[in-house]
Amino acid sequence: MNKPRIAIAQVYHESNSFAAASTPLAAFRVLRGAEIPRYYTGAHNEVTGFLEGAAVHGYDAVPTLCAFATPSGVVEAAAFDWLADALVEALRAAGPLDGILLALHGAFVSHNHDNADAEFVRRVRATFGPQLPFVVTHDPHSSIGQAVIDNVDALVVYKTNPHVDMRERGLQAASIIIRMIRSEVRPVMAYRSLPMMVNIVHQHTASPPLRDLWASLPALEREPGVLAASLSLCYQYSDVPAMGNAVVVVTDGNQAQADRIADDLAARLWALREDLDVRIPDVATAVATARAAPAGPFVIVDIGDNVGGGSAADATFVLAELLRQDADGWVVVLADPEAMRACHAAGVGATLSLRVGGKTDHLHGEPVAVTGRVKCLHDGRFEERAARHGGVRWGDQGLTAVLEVQAHPDHQPSYIVLTGTRCAPMSLHQLQSVGIEPAYMKILTVKAAIAWKAAYEPVMTGFVVADTPGATTVNPKRWTYRKVRRDLWGLEGW
Ligand SMILES: [Zn+2]
Prior knowledge:
single chain; alpha/beta; 8-stranded mixed β-sheet; globular; binds zinc ion
């Protein structure tokens, strides 16, 4: 008997409704065919899991199209149209298929579709019909709508934040689809959409208040007949009707079982509301806290400029405060191609004065004047082999320069890493590759919310989250939401 042929695809974007700029097609990296295993082998991504499932379950993985971009603003309509056409076309060109595994983020918003993920699955379903097994994965920072549920056989969501189980979820999706193809299971789903928003400040799944609920999911999946039990964390920077927490349970043909587990999970999630106070210190207090730490490296989290949440990656509020408080031994990473190029032009060892950061939009502060010595010039590429948020093996921060800043001779040098592209802090190799040993620094700063922890927790002594402005500032009161449901708990802010 021929092996089942399962198409592997990915169209992936987390779209921030409050980012200043829209996202064009050019922001997407598009991989086709053999480029896909080349990129994802040895990584920890759900696509890696889809590919590895072939050997585990004895199917032919047919890599078709993978398109992804760093989180950023709402996607241009033309970019959505191109991606949707390319996805369907690549799947069609794959020849006869027994199933489709598709990795979607779940928070893809375009100017023509509030729930673009739903539109992708609707088109795939319309093209291949209701009989073809079709299993989809999501990031938990998703706005899962009924329309996605209606058009897939099973939905599987990562269970961790930082997302270190992406590959495992890919393998789980592979296991569901192969059993469908072999007529061993017939998935049914229960979906619950909750009128609540767990603020990103609380979205660390290994800490209270979320820890116990999220930790209970694997045990539910060991219950006979349960194929997947998932919770979405929600993505609060998405101004769309489906924004909010959700529950999705997949069972083998037993709707009552799926409903019972979904209702129970929804009730437990709803009950967490009392533990979700989100007040955090201002930037001056956060920097003072880091300076007062008895040992480093102490991490300052610039949550308003959470690159993985779609912000500009060049906010200067923390940098300006570190300079104002005369801190030393710190690292700040800024996406600033202009300043980076000035360092490359000056060469290693040159001393120069320049204005860094705050150049992308009006949300992330003003450029800051600094004088420093060019310590390192680098192509910006690095490799991460451990399971880190994002599941990516090959990192790329674009052409990079490190500026060493030392205000006084008895100070430990500080470093401003000027990158050519926006790069979220998911890997210590981002710094190690440019000659900075994070463990030796007093203060590390990350433009992130939770995702950074997988990489930084092994070396840090502690951390503080600073209530900084920016496209991912955490107080919902700073935004005007227009499309979210009116009764959404958690939107009131402070
Ligand atoms: Zn996520």
